[in-house]
Amino acid sequence: MTKDPRKRVTVNLNDGTTKFIRFTTPVLVDLEKMIGDSPVWAITQERKVGHKLIGEFLWAGLRGENSPLALAAVYKLMHPGELEHYTEQIIEAMKAAGVLKEEKVEEDGDDVDPTQSETTNSTPIETSS
Predict the structure, then answer these.
(1) Does residue 72 lie in a domain region?
(2) Could you tell me if residue 111 is inside a domain?
(3) pTM, entire model
(4) HSE-CB of 46 using CA atoms within 13 angstroms
(5) What share of the chain in percent tops pLDDT 90?
(6) Cα(98)–Cα(96) distance, rounded to whole angstroms?
(7) What pLDDT, on a 0 to 100 scale, did the predictor assign at position 89?
(8) 4: phi then psi, degrees, rounded to nearest 5
(9) pLDDT confidence bin for 44, thresholds 50/70/90
(10) Domain interval for residue 87
(11) Cβ contacts of residue 43 below 8 Å, gap of 6+?
(12) Is residue 18 classed as helix, strand or coil in its secondary structure?
């Protein structure tokens, strides 16, 4: 079975290299064990996203591409000012893997939570009393 290149996302590291990240089921299971929570929930909680968590996600995504890098090596390759960039790339790779849904915007402009299942827009039926 060949790897689907559409499920890979590139990420630029501090040493000037560009690597691919990919989230497969075994990698996500290992990541869940490591962080002690659902990866989908963890990456969507802005107040919890920090250098440690992003490093763990990058490590997992690199493992999905058979990278032999240890977690400590991944931390060293992270540029401290690129946390937002790494987060965006991780989210893109999780969407490509199908574990995170695309955000939808409702008609009133409110964002729909990407961790929730899809629902159809429905308008309540008004009844006269």
Answers:
(1) yes
(2) no
(3) 0.74
(4) 3
(5) 53
(6) 5
(7) 94
(8) -85, 110
(9) confident
(10) 5-97
(11) 49, 53, 57, 87, 90, 91, 94, 100
(12) strand
The tokens of 122 are what? 């429905």
Domain tally for the chain? 1
32, 61, 68, 107, 112 from 7: Cα distances, Å: 20, 11, 20, 30, 23
SS3 11: strand
Is residue 41 domain-resident?
yes
Distance of alpha carbon 119 from alpha carbon 8, whole angstroms: 28
- Per-residue tokens: 91: 């989210």
Closest CA to 103 of 90, 94, 95, 112: 112
What are 58-115's pLDDT values in tens digits?
999 999 999 999 999 999 999 988 999 999 999 999 999 998 887 655 555 555 555 4
> What is the C-alpha separation between 108 and 96, in angstroms, rounded?
27
In this structure, is residue 60 part of a structural domain?
yes
Mean pLDDT of 23-39: 93
Three-state DSSP class for 105? strand
